[in-house]
Structures are given as C-alpha cells and as structure tokens.
User: What shape does this take?
Amino acid sequence: MNWDDVRIFLAVARNGQILGASRALGLNHATVARRLTALEEALGSTLFQRRTNGTQLTAQGETFLVHAEAMESASLAAAGSADANSRIEGTVRIGAPDGFGVAFLAPRLHELTERHPSMRIELVPVPRAFSLSRREADIAVTLERPREGRLVARKLTDYSLGLYAARSYLDRYGAPKSLDDLQHHRLVGYVEDLLYTASLDYTGLFSGDWHSRIAVSSAMGQTEAVRAGAGIGILHAFMARRDRDLIPLLPQHIVTRSYWTVLHEDLRSIRRVALVSEFLAEIVARDRALFIAAMAPDNP
Assistant: This one.
C-alpha cells in the first residue's frame, strides 16, 4: 500500500469531493481520481460512492478511515521526532475568529517568520468553526474550550466587549443614558442564524429587544459599520480602542469572553506546530493589557 495514496484518501474524505482534495493537495483532478482508484483496487474495497456533487464514504471507507488516521498520526509523530534535530521549516495553518485574526494576529506574524525564515504561516481569519480532525487547520483559536475529541486546549486570555458609537453618530443622535435608551437608537448587530457558537450571542445581555437595523456576520464588519456612523454596536474593546472616533458608551456594562488555542493531540509533538502555539501564547501574554483593559472613555 502506497502512503501517498492513503494521504489522498484522507484529503478526499475530509473535503467530501475529489476536486476539493486536488486543490488542497496541489494535484490535478485526474491524478487524485486515479490514485484513489489504485488504492481501492489494492484494498479490494470500494471506499467512496462517487457522485456528481461530491463523494461519500462507504461502510468500508469508514472502517479504513480509522486505520488511515492512525497511519497519519504515526507519520506525524515520526516527522516531529525528525524536526527536533533540524531547523524549523514547513507550513502551519492557524484558523481564528476574524477580529482576533485580522486586528491582532496578522500584524504580529512577521515576528515568527523573522525568527524562523524557513517557516510558512497560513492564517485563515474567518468567523467559523474549524475541524482539526479534518486538518482544516493545525491550530485553531476558539471562543470556547472543546469538551470532546482528542484535542489539546490552552487558554490565551479573557477579552471584553462593550457598546460603542462613532462621534458622527453621537453628534446626530446623542448618547444613551441607560440600557433602556438603546431601544430609541439605531443598532448594529450580528446575523443570528450564522452564529457558529453560543458565545457570540450576547445582545440579550444589553437589551431584551435588540433590533439591528444593520446586521453583519463578522466582528470586523460590525466595527466598520459602527465606525461609519451606522449606529451603536457591541464591539471588541481591543479593536475599538485603537480608533479615537469610536466612543465607549455605558462603560459599566461589558461582556467578557475568552480566547483559547486548540490543536489536535497528534500534532502537539510536531515541533513547528508546538512552536507556533507557544508564539501565540507569548504575544498574547505580552499584550494582555489590550484585551483586559477597562473600557474607560479615554477618548478626549
């Protein structure tokens, strides 16, 4: 059995289609299909039902997936052992919420690649959950500690969210004097049915009748809408405090959430992955004041 064929099998299983697997592996569609057929012939089993809209594992495929992932784990462990006696190189993909990923992490990643020029870092800062078992990311920054699966979690920091509005909005409509006043203001919020975790559902903590005139499915988008004067929004303090035109409102009312780093148990012995995980903890610890600073109205 060819390990490269098993690697292709895992990519197809995780992507749910041959085309997606070929893109992930950097191979053409025909090559992936041919190698998959070769693996099935070597095993004497049909591993996938191939359809026009994708692939689905057969019962034999589900059984083989367990063994294929065990082979992958052994391969990763061997690679980790080899890494210990060589320079750090290779690619590590980080999945993160867009606010943390874009506003905090992206400007600091160059520090890591300057220390280790042979490394490549892929940052995927999108508002979604990442499947580590399917290797959608090597490390995920999450809002909740995982409760199941072979995952290793580490708390990075708490952070706060509060009410903000742009100067331009306050000049036109004034500032609320209490949470009850929010019902008389234009509000910016999130798209409720696209929330990927319950931790992001916090408007009810500020108002029982939060009605967003503008709803944006990302933290960065909400911040930009509020900055433009669209209304009052619940923003990440570490992002909003950088802009002197964003004014904190009712600062005694805040919400606290947490960031965690999570990686699959099989990857923690891989030196480059462990190094990136340590780097994330390092930069967050160094700049922790950004996340936990009180929301005092420091804008003149």
User: Anything to note?
Assistant: The CA atoms of residues 92 and 289 lie 27 Å apart.
